[in-house]
Amino acid sequence: MGETMTKSMNSSQLLVLYTLVIVCSLIPLSHSAKKPVGIARKEDIPYIKCQVCEKLASQIYHQVEAKGSEVSPKKLSEYEIIEIAENVCNLKKREADWILKIDIVEKGDKLELVEQDSEGQCNSECKTIERACQEVLGYSDTDAAEHLYKKKPQLNAFVNFVCKDLTGACKSKPPPVPKDRAPGEPFVAKSEKEAEMERLMKSMEGMPGAPGMKMYSREDLMNQKFGAEGGDEDEDEDAEEFPSNLGKALRQKPEKETDWKEMIIKGILNAGEKLKEHTDRVSFKLRRWWQSKKTEWKKSSQSGKAEL
Predict the structure, then answer these.
(1) In whole angstroms, how large is the CA radius of gyration of the chain?
(2) What is the number of other CB atoms lying within 10 angstroms of the CB of residue 56?
(3) Can you give the pTM of this predicted structure?
(4) Are 189 and 120 in contact (CB under 8 A)?
(5) How far apart, in whole angstroms, are the C-alpha atoms of residue 263 and residue 269?
(6) Domain residue limits, the chain
């Protein structure tokens, strides 16, 4: 029985991966190649923490406002507001996408956060802003959410509460930036397709069959450098339908130019249908297994009584 469930889960994971392959195959290699991971410059945090606080408070306010409009006329719950506040400094969550649009610019003896029109590659500056955001808000995210839920302040009042009263991030002016500070890297914008793919990946977090989902470049997928090595072969029918040669599939050019968003949506819908089929199949097998056990126990009980 455990083997059956494992097979079904493996098939589900393959189906999710197939959807991701559809997305990745539409992105040029130059955009999807592995990039160096940026490291936060902790020494820069004192110079930007007040600005970061103002931006994160503004983000919480506007995201709560947008979420409220989505669920209207239903009232937004305190839990939903807390969830936004908890995720606003976590780049793995979509609530923190605002960080990707910020460039740290040197102006005299100050560092300024300048918002760009599009999302940029997440290098050291991006990680620095995330770290500053986390240090500023800390464990005060729940208090900020509670204040917004109960008091319903205006934007300016909420920013002042978070950055002066709650965290103290803006109580004093930032110190001057040292003249010998090494300049940060330039802001490099992402392509719209790459940004859309990353948003899709975030939205698929926690999806059945996709635990601990890992990002692969298109080059890796073309060379089939993904998944666990030496794993057991899945003999499930749906697993056999999964393309065994991803490299070949990715190299093939579509006969017609199709809108990439439509392809993504179609891939997700197909994966969803397959996942539902797997769920139904596992449920049926569980019921059948339980029925066989009940029959077995019944026969055993009758046999025991006959012996007596």
Answers:
(1) 26
(2) 30
(3) 0.63
(4) yes
(5) 10
(6) 2-28+193-284, 42-166
Alpha helices in the chain, H assignment, sequence order: 2-24, 29-32, 45-71, 78-87, 124-137, 141-151, 155-160, 192-203, 218-222, 237-241, 246-251, 260-307
Tokens of 21: 């392959």
Q: Is 257 helix (H, G, I), strand (E, B) or coil?
A: coil
> Could you tell me the end-to-end alpha-carbon distance of the chain, in angstroms, rounded to an integer?
34
Q: Is the dihedral of CA 217, 221, 224, 227 positive or negative?
A: positive
H helices, E strands: number in the chain: 12, 2
Q: Which amino acid is at 10?
A: N
Write the CB contacts of 279 (distance below 8 Å, at least 6 apart in sequence).
Answer: 208
- pLDDT tens digits for range 264-305: 666 666 666 666 666 666 666 676 676 666 667 666 666 665
The mean pLDDT value for 164-173 works out to 97
Q: State both tokens at 263.
A: 């392809």
Residue 108's CB: how many other CB atoms inside 10 A? Answer: 8
In degrees to the nearest 10, what's the CA dihedral of 191, 194, 196, 202?
A: -140
Residue matched to tokens 């610019």: 105
Length of the chain: 308
| Residue 104 main-chain phi, psi, to 5 deg | -90, 115
Q: Which amino acid is at 251?
A: R
Q: Would you state the pLDDT for residue 191?
A: 86
Determine contact, residues 59/240, Cβ cutoff 8 Å.
no
Q: Cβ distance 125 to 103 under 8 Å?
A: yes
- Token pair of 192 as six digits: 């719209």
pLDDT at 188: 95
